[in-house]
């Protein structure tokens, strides 16, 4: 039997795959399908705001030859919907992550206070990297704002907390964000969110491919794999060992999952491929990962996790 287990903040995962927040997780029906899917070891809710939001209007997701572009604009059912689901959630085998993404610092702190006061006993992910709300820059690119919200959050929040980060593109930025994150008792970081504000053109019509924000949107899928690997590895090298890493970005095959683990990921999340294939993708990825491990004579993920070699 191949061992694909992981742990974060005392939670044990029998399998290391989960959905990327935002994909197949806005409704309880979608969440239940993820919970029941073979190959998932956990699930995460769509990032919540204090009140329900319809999100951006018009065509807001498109598949691309090498991935996807989206500008969903945070459509969600509101925090109390997900808290209600979470408070009735009793599947010990597959821990639940609750994702929140307030449009202001005050909204984020208010939601964390609500979660702190609730019965919720799972893990919470603070999304600091939504690229698609018009007029709202990604908090994760503002280092002082990131430090400030974490400082305030940890004055009262005692449940396991992780952050969803945007991709960084300069090693100096890896140093800066890691130094900030290391100052807090974070359970984990999730890296990367989509590569923000890409633009793709439909050659048949000479138009942009999605409607909101004049066509600008977050990129995911195969085209972001190298950026995801760099961020997972760069953060793993810099973060305290107590801060675990969820690797997200560019997973199409079991080998892609393997690569993120080799780069340092504890769990691996799947976005674009889940959108394209539905929850059955997890069974495929799990068996492809096991086949790859068999080829390498590994029986446990710990035998290669964070063991990426460099060339001398
Ligand atoms: O809803 C979105 O447009 C969205 C969010 Br909140 C996010 O964090 N990442 C993304 O690609 N889209």
From TrEMBL:
Its main location: cytoplasm. One of its GO terms (biological process) is 'de novo' UMP biosynthetic process. Pfam families: DHO_dh. CDD domains: DHOD_1A_like (cd04741). GO terms for molecular function: dihydroorotate dehydrogenase (fumarate) activity. Keywords: Cytoplasm, Flavoprotein, FMN, Oxidoreductase, Pyrimidine biosynthesis. It catalyses: (S)-dihydroorotate + fumarate = orotate + succinate. One of its GO terms (cellular component) is cytoplasm. Pathway: Pyrimidine metabolism; UMP biosynthesis via de novo pathway. InterPro entries: Aldolase_TIM, DHO_dehydrogenase, DHOD_1A, Dihydro_DH_chainA_dom2, Dihydroorotate_DH_1_2, Dihydroorotate_DH_cat, Dihydroorotate_DH_CS. The keyword Transmembrane does not apply. NCBIfam families: PRK02506.1. PANTHER family: DIHYDROOROTATE DEHYDROGENASE (FUMARATE), DIHYDROOROTATE DEHYDROGENASE (QUINONE), MITOCHONDRIAL-RELATED. This is dihydroorotate oxidase (fumarate). It comes from Weissella halotolerans DSM 20190. The lineage of its organism: Bacteria, Bacillati, Bacillota, Bacilli, Lactobacillales.
